């Protein structure tokens, strides 16, 4: 306190427009366009947009939407693959004050109709490839909304459903449209529905401040800079491309669009555009690892790849590194703008044997520098677990890159924020070095004879088997033990005669015996629309075995 009483640092030192502006990722685009106007911002097939053109297109979009009366409080839905309109929507839509609702293009008509209804979208911008499912969804929605079609020459068929195509819509707008930043950085910027791995989809609402911060967090954690060439192997609809839509723009990097994450396209694109960075769920990495030899390429310099969204098996990390990729492991959820946590590499990891290094990377790790707090706690008492790598608790997060809440869902929002922390629903342990390791989603842990068995730990052992391509382990009710592990396995094409007994023996050789699966089922695994294995379907199947 000052001599005269009161805090001298609060006197005559008020926030004003010169020293306090709402944080929004939209300013990254203006910045990049003013600093790198002629640099290539977006590549899509043979098309190129410079940062000047990219910004102009976003402003045209904002202007055209504004002319149609859209703005604060409105929702603009977009159903598109990783193509320029989807990227432009991440800037053009919120420039109007409206909220972008990017829809997962793998959903069925009922799922899309639910989202359009719940999110109250007034307009949908949709790629013609998805016209069959969208026209059905619009019928189910039962109310008329404006439809703008994206007629991408790289798209695959479909019909034009709406009144206009996207390029004609952009032409309605002014390229020098002046957009107003949000009055409050807490204003909603996007609405993202969870894929419903654990139940009904929930509408997660992001704010401008969180988008700004997670974009910068990504750039810091993943080492993006002005020379970065970012290949879009992660769908932009997923948590706004884990906030990389804004993050790559924040550094003036180049976005390389990709409609379909097919290894036969990914390898040549990396080579052609000298890609430096890309992200993807472990399933994408697994596809690259198992791609036919004539598709695979070696690169002159290592390509940075960030993976998350599900636990990457260490065998997949090791195989990717052997192919010339540097793997960064990210953990996060829709509720925290994509990644919140990463296995921050320590200098000494560089000297480790590949297997040991992969074991370090496979842990989910520490919080982003832009996240305020990360703890593993007992959800009842909120007491932190000891850093003994054994005591399981729930991972909780706190900070400015946690969602505003769930749209029109106050009870679930309150429960998710109980005790002033966001409850992730993921169970994990803390290692002596402070790195968190996720053991399971609370629903997935297997309780056998009074012991917890982490399904991820059993899967980790299964993925090390040379002929296992994919694996998932769930609880099967068991009279003696309560529950026992049941493994569902997809074998590699060259597997030959691998039997259930072989798999069980392999697990016994690599795990404590009680953790080895009692049952092994071979075949393809059911996936959600974001490519995650649907354990609830497998649990049902296991019960019926
Ligand atoms: P949904 O909840 O619909 O599956 P999300 O993308 O929000 O969609 O999924 C977040 C969940 O994915 C997390 O709660 C966690 O269970 C899982 N997850 C994400 N990243 C990782 C990771 N690196 N390791 C293990 N699990 C992960």
List keywords for this structure.
five-stranded parallel β-sheet; 31% helix; 545 residues; nine-stranded mixed β-sheet; 17 helices; GMP Synthetase, Chain A, domain 3; globular; Luciferase, domain 3; binds adenosine-5'-diphosphate; alpha/beta
3D architecture notes:
Among the domains are: 370-441, Luciferase, Domain 3 (Luciferase, domain 3, Roll); 445-544, GMP Synthetase, Chain A, domain 3 (2-Layer Sandwich), CATH 3.30.300. It is 31% helix and 24% strand. The chain is built from 17 helices and 26 strands. The protein has a nine-stranded mixed beta sheet, with helices on both faces. The protein has a five-stranded parallel beta sheet with strand order 4-3-5-6-7, with helices on both faces. It has a four-stranded antiparallel beta sheet with strand order 17-18-20-21. Helix 1 packs across helix 2 (51-67), helix 1 runs parallel beside helix 9 and helix 2 crosses helix 3 (84-95). The radius of gyration is 24 Å and the shape is globular. 52% of the residues are buried. The model has no long low-confidence stretch (mean pLDDT 94). Bound molecules: adenosine-5'-diphosphate (ADP). Residues 194-197, 308-311, 329, 331-334, 364, 424-426, 438, 441, 532 line the site of adenosine-5'-diphosphate (ADP).
Low-confidence stretches: none
- The CATH class designation of the domain at 445-544 is Alpha Beta
Radius of gyration: 24 Å
Instruction: Write down the overall geometry.
Output: globular
CATH architecture classification name of the domain at 445-544: 2-Layer Sandwich
Structural class: alpha/beta
Terminal residue distance: 71 Å
Bound molecules: adenosine-5'-diphosphate
Q: Biggest β-sheet: count, sense, barrel? A: 9 strands, mixed
Number of strands: 26
Count the DSSP helices.
17
CATH topology of the domain at 445-544: GMP Synthetase, Chain A, domain 3
Residues in helices, as a percent range: 25-40%
Q: Quick one: CATH superfamily of the domain at 445-544?
A: ANL, C-terminal domain
**Can you list the strand order of the major beta sheet?**
2-1-11-10-12-13-14-15-16
β content, as a range?
A: 15-25%
Mean pLDDT: 94
